[in-house]
Amino acid sequence: MKRRSITTFSAFALFLSLALGLSSCVSTKETIYFGNLPTDSPQVKLPVYQEPVIQVDDILHVTIQTVDGGSTVALNRLSGGNESGNPAPVANGGTPNGYLVDENGQITLPMLGSFHVAGLTTSKARQQIHQAATKYFNDPTVQVRFANFKITVIGEVARPATYTVPNEKITLLDAIGMAGDLTIYGKRQTVMLIRDTGGKKEFTRFDLTDYNTFESEYFYLKQNDVIYVEPTRSKANANNAATFQIVSLALSALSVITLAITRL
C-alpha cells in the first residue's frame, strides 16, 4: 500500500511538471510580426518624418571644413573630431565629445561666438553657423550632428541597453533590431514607448502583429525615447514550470530512495 502511494505521488509530480511545461508554450500567431498584412502587394503610407530638435543638455558635433583644412583643425578637435572633421569614437559608458547646449540653449564655438540652438533642428543650426563661418573661412562646409542621440530598449529583448544612434532618422524597428529583437517571451501586441515631452512623460503602445504600426506618428523615434517590451504570461508559466520540474524531480528521487529503504 505504501509503495503504491509513493509511485502515485511520483507520477502526479511528473504529470504536474509536464502540464505546466505545455501551458508555457507560445503560439506561432503571437510571435509573427505584421501577421495581418494582406498578400496582394500591400502598400503602407509612412508618417511624415519630422527632424528632432536640439534640447538643453544635448551634445553636438560641429565641424567646419575648408579648402585650407589647417585653419579649422583646432575648432574640429574641440568638437571631438579629427583633422577631417569626423567625430572621434566614444568608448562604452564614456561621455561623447562635442559642444554642450547650456541651460540657456546656447553653444559657444571658438572664433565664431555663441549660437542659440535649442529648439532648432540640426539643419537649421547648420545654416546659422555656416553664415557666421563665411566671415572667417573661405567657402566653408559645416556639419552639425547629435553626439548623444540615445535610445533605450528594455524588457524582453535579447540585448537591453541604451544605444547611441549615429543617424537621427531611426524607427521603432531599427531600435528593436539594435537590441537583438524581442525574445520568444516578448509581448508583441503592447510594446510601450515612453517619451519626454515638455517636461512630461508621454506613453503610447504599438502592436507589432498589426501592419498599421507603420502609420503611427510615433514610428520615427526621438532622442531619449525609451522602448519597453512586456513579458507574456508564458514567461511566468515557464518560470513556474522550471521550478515545479525541479521540485518534481526532487520528489521523484526522494520516492525512489524511500522505496529502496522500505525494501530493506
In terms of structural class, how would the helical and strand content be classed?
A: alpha+beta
Number of helices: 6
- Give the overall shape: elongated
Taking all Cα atoms into account, the compactness measure Rg is: 28 Å
Q: Order of strands in the sheet with the most strands?
A: 7-6-10-8-9
Q: How would you spell out the order of helices and strands? A: HHEHEEEHEEEHEEEH
The major β-sheet equals:
5 strands, mixed
Strand composition percent: 15-25%
The average pLDDT score comes to: 79
Terminal-residue CA separation:
16 Å
Share in helix? 25-40%
Number of strands: 10
Low-confidence stretches: 1-6, 16-20, 81-93
Summarize the structure.
This protein has helices at 2-23, 28-31, 73-78, 122-133, 172-178, 233-263; strands at 59-65, 99-100, 106-109, 113-116, 141-146, 150-155, 161-164, 191-197, 200-206, 225-229. By secondary structure, it is α+β, with helices and mostly antiparallel strands.
Question: Which labels suit this protein?
Answer:
single chain; 264 residues; alpha+beta; five-stranded mixed beta sheet; three-stranded antiparallel beta sheet; 6 helices; disordered N terminus
Task: Please give a structural write-up.
The structure is a single chain. With 264 residues, this protein is an alpha+beta fold. It has six helices and ten strands. A five-stranded mixed sheet has the order 7-6-10-8-9, covered by helices on one side. It has a three-stranded antiparallel sheet with strand order 2-1-5. A two-stranded antiparallel ribbon has the order 3-4. Strand 8 and strand 9 form a beta hairpin. Helix 1 packs antiparallel against helix 6. The N terminus is likely disordered.
